[in-house]
Write a structure and sequence with these properties.
It contains 30 helices and no strands. It is mostly helical and 635 residues long. It has a domain of 78 residues.
Length: 635
Amino acid sequence: MAEVVQNAIEGYIQDLSTLERYELFTSNEIKSILSKRTEFEYRLRKRQKSKDDFLRYIAYEESLLKLIRIRREKSTLEIDRSEVEKSVIEQIRKLYEFTINKFKSDIPLWLSYISFSKGQNHLDHVSKIYFRMIQVHNKDWLWLQFAKFEFEEKASSETARKIFLRAISFHPESQQIWHEYFRFELLYCSKIRKRYMIITDAMETSEKTEIDFKQSNDGIWNGQLAIVVYTHAIDSCSDFEFAIRFLEICYKFDSEIVQKAKETILDDLKTRFGSCEDYWNVIALDKMHLYKQMVRYAKNPLTTEQQLSLKQKSFVESISIFEKACHNFENTKMWSHYINFRLADLKDTTNSQILARKISEIIFTIEKLWKEQKIELDIFKEWIKLIYSCNKKDVNTIQKLKRILKEASDRWPENLSLHLFIACLMSKLRLPVNEIDKFFQDSLYYRFTKVDKYNMDVMIDFWQLYIDWSISVKQSYHKIMKVINQLNRVCINAPRQMSEHFKTKLLTTIYHVFGIDKTRSYYESNKTVSPISMTFIQKMMVVEKHYSEMQEEGFIDLNERLKTLHEDLVHHFGMKDVQIWLDYIRHMMSVDMVKVGPLYDRALRNLDSSLCQQFVQQYSLLRSTHSPSTNTNEI
């Protein structure tokens, strides 16, 4: 092995001497580079080879290459770049090849090799690496990267098209490949048109007219290749959402380029989904997308008046299609599409008078649908938000909202998110406290008592809202603790995360609202309630320290309380956690060094045997670096 390494090092000497000759590196630096390379070469030839050794060697050589470039730019001598960099670049390539042959399954390694080769502008070599990589890793996203590279960086449309076709033969079920292939053909069409515009700018009118006529009948010019892609794509997947994605891609291009492709897609959708509400939603929205395309890709920028006129015309056409569809279907889904369209339009409306009129129209329409029970829950929530935002201070509006919320609770009695929404709104309305409190109790005490991993996040928000509202309206300590006790009962059968969340959070809340005595009482009554939480005990330590800092005296009392809390920690978690013993010892070092020794022995007796060595090492470090802590504790 030594002979092989020596031969390799001798091969580097001549190349490195060139760097010294151009005064890029000193003699000592060259010796250091040789020494480092020797070390790496020996590591690569071990019997048990480590990928990290290969990666470190590559990283070292890449850093060396960067340093050479920096010093070459700063040098006053005329230096041939290829002469000083070529050997290092070849060395890095050899290392990548050697490493990849050993660890072919490492995709990030392949991609690093590609990134390096791109940085050297070795684009033909990048193509070869991609080709080798996809033979080993036949993944759809790698095929897409390969095709994108060929089209965007090598400007090779034909090669990119062949790659897409090859990718589809391996992954005919990949929706992403079909969509990107479709996008590619549209980009290719756009590219051809831009070239044509540049070429024909200098032509005479007669010549340009003749070419225009020929181009208008050309399949590629009109996006026929993209249409072929779509036709084959829907044979592999007949899903509606899959087809709609092609339409969304069309909206990113000039309407002239995608006109025939859009017509093909819409005709296909009508044939296959003409009796579906989603199809009519797409048809109606298409009018607004067309308006945006015309504004974005107009040959001559449109004036504000022209844009508004075009937008209004498209909006009216969309409304007409929606109203016709709603009349034909007369169901909740179609009306939801229509209302969502009207709500989205509000965000683009800047004129306050027009905005107020549109809001009134939407509120009136939804109210009619509400009475006919043709409204989905999401639309209901948006309706309530509109009513509240427009007339939140009006007494009649508040009474109207109160009635509607009661009806909604009866209409969707088992919907947890709805009742949370109602509770949020009720807490903002000027309603009697007892009414709001009764709603919370009916919902959380009787209707929604089961917590699982699916509804836990909503239940946490619901209970948190109840507690925050109770505090904000200055409920008595007795009433708030009644709520907390009920919450604790719910948490017993809930996922552990819910209990840990509330036990720690409530500790801080009670401290700030009711003081230290109530906080200590809450801690004592809950510290052994399952699940026992380390963060709960640690938060109590923070509370005690904060309280002590607020007092003029009480340092001795604090030490005793912290000692008790440390005892709680080691009692429950002392077998598996080294850090809590170290924290306990650190505390005792600042209080009474005599007790540190017995505490150390106790830790060794209680800790799991596999953790004792770690504890001894960290304890020794603590002894050598210990100094009394003066950190301020914040809640």
